[in-house]
Amino acid sequence: MEKRKLGHSGLEIAPIAFGGNIFGWTVDEPTSFGLLDAFVGAGFNCIDTADVYSRWAPGNRGGESETIIGKWLKRSGNREKVVIATKVGKEMGPTAKGLSKAYVLRAVEDSLKRLQTDRIDLYQSHEDDPETPLEETLEAYAQLIRQGKVRAIGASNHAAGRLSEALEVSGRKGYPCYTSLQPLYNLYDRREYERELEPVCRREGLGVLPYFSLASGFLTGKYRRGADASKSARARYLERYLNDRGFHILDALDQVAREHHATPARVALAWLIARPGVTAAIASATNMEQMNELIRAPELAPAPADFELLDSASAYE
């Protein structure tokens, strides 16, 4: 399996990362174990999660995804085979949120305990915290790296200006630098990343790990004109894609998929992991059929004309 360098982190990962937001939400523990076994068994190695996953589900408190991954790591003995990426900063409770040094140092211990590991390979700021000085957050990460509890740090959901500012502070004051960015980016959601964030990432050599790589399942082709998306657990995310531009993208995906005897999902992932600067696409699977789509995506080699068709169909103003 091809491995790609994640920025300047020293980490190397396969071009598809498993999105762990579904664990403890739409996928139970036994099914999660089977999916993780299949993913790693196929040669992939990056598992992405967050402390807040999946706090939004009824009856959950947050930490469910990390807990399931931790149990799987202990049961499988695969810790040395995988790169564990998790995040901090989203609200876990009224006083448990943000990127203050005190909170980051407390939250990392909770994540390590749930993950049943002594280190986090990639620890990411889940969202910007404008109320905390960048220096304070970066000092917390510096301490964790010195202690061996974190190997590298990344950012998620950061605007280009704040990301650039954080990198400048790191360089000027000698703090560890963000080595990766996790942005919303897929064949539909292109504008913000390509116009604002991509130039920063390419200039600074950051690895890029797009989330919602399949646009909450829309790019699989499952939700089409007249389809009832309200029955999906991701219904609140899907509505924004059900428009003429979205359906035009699906038509293009269908055309390329037919030519390559593939599926729209595989084509959409192949497009994304071929984009300049993208290290790996984060995608989830809730069953083995979907897992096979993820596993086979890197095998697909669309022709230049296919990429031109997809780019044209998904063009934005």
UniProtKB/TrEMBL annotation:
GO terms for molecular function: oxidoreductase activity. Residues 15-313 form the NADP-dependent oxidoreductase domain. Transmembrane segments: none annotated. One of its GO terms (cellular component) is cytosol. SUPFAM superfamilies: NAD(P)-linked oxidoreductase. The keyword Transcription does not apply. Keywords: Oxidoreductase. It holds the Pfam family Aldo_ket_red. The keyword Oxidoreductase applies. InterPro entries: AKR_Detox_Biosynth, NAD(P)_OxRdtase_dom_sf, NADP_OxRdtase_dom. PANTHER family: NADH-SPECIFIC METHYLGLYOXAL REDUCTASE-RELATED, OXIDOREDUCTASE-RELATED. This is Aldo/keto reductase.
